[in-house]
Amino acid sequence: MMDRRSFLKDSAGMAAAAGAVPAVARAQPGGAYDVAVVGAGAFGGWIALVLRERGLKVLSIDEYGPANPRASSAGETRSIRSGYGAQAIYSSWAATALKMWKLRQAEFGRTILYPNDRIELANAWSPSMLAQRKIFDDLKIPYEVLDQAALRVRYPQMNFDDVSFAFIEKSSAAVIKARESMIVVSEVFQKKGGAFRIARAVPGAATGRHMTTLKLNDGTEVAAGQVVFACGPWSAKMFPKLMGRKVDVYRSEYYYWGVPAGDDRFSWPKQPAWHDHIVGGYGFGSIERGLKYSPAALGRVAQDPDTAERLATDYLLKRGRDYIGHRFPDMRDAPILETRVCQIEATADDHFVIDTHPDYDNVWLASGGGGHGFKHGPLVGEYVADRLMGKATDPETDKLFRLASRPDLQPTGAGAA
Ligand SMILES: Cc1cc2nc3c(=O)[nH]c(=O)nc-3n(C[C@H](O)[C@H](O)[C@H](O)COP(=O)(O)OP(=O)(O)OC[C@H]3O[C@@H](n4cnc5c(N)ncnc54)[C@H](O)[C@@H]3O)c2cc1C
């Protein structure tokens, strides 16, 4: 693996060849960092850790702290799945990321991963599901297809009266403790010599196409050779002109139902994760907090990640109760024990934005996780570190994640065009 000395030497070489001295190649004056990463969520947290592990001097900054309750990475749990319809890149990324999470779990020495079946309930093979089945065949990812009768035998706690079949992911799916794992990532980052600060950061001074400092809300400035903005749902607030028409930030709610006493049918590992292509929504078996279900929202409600109240919406609570009673008859009268309101930061085509800032050669943008970015954290960390350190990456992936490749969109709640 490239260490800091050889990286600086190589970068200087590359820079000399390119006739410019990239930021990190310049020995950082005094207390300057090689890299400052703004945002300690699933994207920024992993980017900072991987860069630190590669020997760089890294500062991780978050205005509210890692996995803070406003952040999209702060949910108790998130799902890891390889089922992505026709989007093969995310199927293979998810399969790789799952392997990385398993290694990290061993390193962290605590249980954060809960492997389970993931069932997609359907009545017809949509083009997206047909494409997914082919991708699973091509990537040799194991799966099963069970009809209604077989589903009733395998998962008797669920009602399949309106379901013809299910596509079942076997070894490529898991539930991950999201909030907990992001706190561990930040702890391990600091244990490995990374610096962490709670502060709101904005772009600071610049010389030509080189941003030299970040300005912090306490009036101080920090210098860094390179800067990564991994601000998730705050990216459009940070760069309104650049990101304002590229990402949409809207609410997403889910709730936890209390399982019956002494009854483990609705809990991991007996209860699989599921995605309902018929009624809508998805959920996981209980891991500590209850049976989780997120009803389909039937439309987007814009959300300001700083100021929005995280209180559940009545009509979605009703949709959730009706659904649980339908899909889990023995849970019809179960109490809702907890509710969560989070925000999704999605691009028009649901692809990530990982690219340099158009005005600065040493500034990186890493966001656009949408409703699916958490699982990819470890791989996003490696990928961005490779890009930032000038290591070869897949040009097709680079192109896919380019900011300019994202279609413009009309953000939810924004005034009519
Ligand atoms: C309800 C819901 C369910 C989801 N389910 C899944 C799932 O099952 N599987 C999956 O893989 N993904 C899922 N996702 C998506 C996933 O959670 C996100 O894609 C991912 O967490 C995004 O991480 P992030 O680091 O980009 O953003 P965040 O986690 O929001 O992190 C951004 C951080 O930047 C900080 N920040 C912002 N601006 C500044 C600033 N100026 N200065 C300092 N700090 C700043 C914030 O405090 C925040 O901590 C879900 C998302 C939601 C909302």
Key features?
8-stranded mixed β-sheet, binds flavin-adenine dinucleotide, globular, FAD/NAD(P)-binding domain, 417 residues, D-Amino Acid Oxidase, Chain A, domain 2, alpha+beta
Write structural notes for this entry:
It is a single chain. The protein is α+β, with helices and mostly antiparallel strands and 417 residues long. It has 2 domains: 192 residues, FAD/NAD(P)-binding domain (3-Layer(bba) Sandwich), CATH 3.50.50; 155 residues, D-Amino Acid Oxidase, subunit A, domain 2 (D-Amino Acid Oxidase, Chain A, domain 2, 2-Layer Sandwich), CATH 3.30.9.10. Helices cover 29% and strands 25% of the residues. It is built from 11 helices and 21 strands. Strands 1, 2, 9, 10, 13, 14, 20 and 21 form an 8-stranded mixed beta sheet that branches. Strands 6-7-5-16-17-18-15-19 form an 8-stranded mixed beta sheet, sandwiched between helices. The protein has a 3-stranded antiparallel beta sheet with strand order 3-8-4. The radius of gyration is 22 Å and the shape is globular. About 4% of the residues have low confidence. It binds flavin-adenine dinucleotide.
Tell me the number of strands: 21
What proportion of the residues is helical, as a percent range? 25-40%
Q: Enumerate how many helices there are, as a single number.
A: 11
- Given helix and strand content, the structural type is alpha+beta
Overall pLDDT: 92
Compute the CA-based radius of gyration.
22 Å
Q: How would you describe the shape?
A: globular
CATH-defined topology of the largest domain: FAD/NAD(P)-binding domain
Task: Supply the CATH architecture of the largest domain.
Answer: 3-Layer(bba) Sandwich
**What is the total number of structural domains?**
2
CATH superfamily of the largest domain: FAD/NAD(P)-binding domain
